[in-house]
Amino acid sequence: MSKEQERFNTQYSNEKEINIGSKGIFDFFKSEFAKSEGSLEIKVHLFELTKLTSLSLTKCPKLTTDNCSLIKLTSLNSLKINNCSEFKKIFDLTALPKLKKLSIVGCSALITFDYSSTGLIDLEISDCSQINHITGFSKLPNLTTLSLNCSNTSIEELSINLCLEIKTLNCSNNHKLTNLDASNCSKLEFLDCTNNKLTILDLRYCSESIDVKYSPSLIIARKKKILIVGRTGGGKSTLANVLTNSNEFKESAYAINETKYFRKKEFEWNEDDKTKDNKEDNFRVVDTIGVGDTKLSTENTLFKIADGILLMPEGISHVLFVINGRFTKEEIDTFNLIKESLFKSDILRYVTIVRSN
């Protein structure tokens, strides 16, 4: 080990946060750092800093993935790489098992991002002008915050539809981005896609309460989820056939369910007539087993209805409670049973009672 490395280890072995490129570290190690085009060149290794949890690398033009000692920092949970002009690709993130936050800013040589990490929850990629390919978000299962601000990139399509834990997405100022698929992101709370050329934003199976910032000309594709409930023989399946313009749902006028457990179908409504608020709506309808089936106990019937609800983990847009004729005491008891057993107290805001004849 060189004397310089020993001095570095002695000085920083107990540090939890280091900023490579800061004036302090340069003053201490000015003999071990060489000026290169106005920036700093690292001449020491970091892998013995086992307690290091936060590292910032700024203006390190010689930093590359090859022979990079960063991958030995197994305690690292935050890494910032700023304005490192030769940094072309990310190292294997699986070598940093505790890494939770990664920020890559102003790395003009970075071309692609497709890496795996089970721990990463916060990712920022900003001002990386050469990047043209960002994929592999399915390999980041716990990602909750994603910020992409790469105004001069050639990225045209972006899909995060398998980021099931993501809550915040900022992809503003990506001027060539035309297609964004955020479907299935049921926990997404905030989305900023302003200042780009998006023509279609796919938010199917996302929460209805997302705070979305977007261009007025953008068409948002959503999928609304309709649950049909009621007593056996009340006309639930007939209503489902009318909505879907099909004959796939079976109805029985007797106390034996033709709908065994549940049946689902997706359909479009007024496909050629875009709504005034630039939203293009698709639907999923789920017809559940009827209450009152003579072959099942009430408890088992409720379990089967719950199975149908689980088909819509992102939430239910509307509940249709179907009755056959008058709203009798039996219908009231059935409605209260389903409401109190399976839904939250505010479900009444989303319920419509439908008479089948």
From TrEMBL:
Keywords: GTP-binding, Hydrolase, Nucleotide-binding. Transmembrane segments: none annotated. Residues 225-354 form the AIG1-type G domain. It comes from Rhizophagus clarus. Pfam families: AIG1. GO terms for molecular function: GTP binding; hydrolase activity. This is P-loop containing nucleoside triphosphate hydrolase protein. InterPro entries: G_AIG1 (IPR006703), GIMA/IAN/Toc (IPR045058), LRR_dom_sf (IPR032675), P-loop_NTPase (IPR027417).
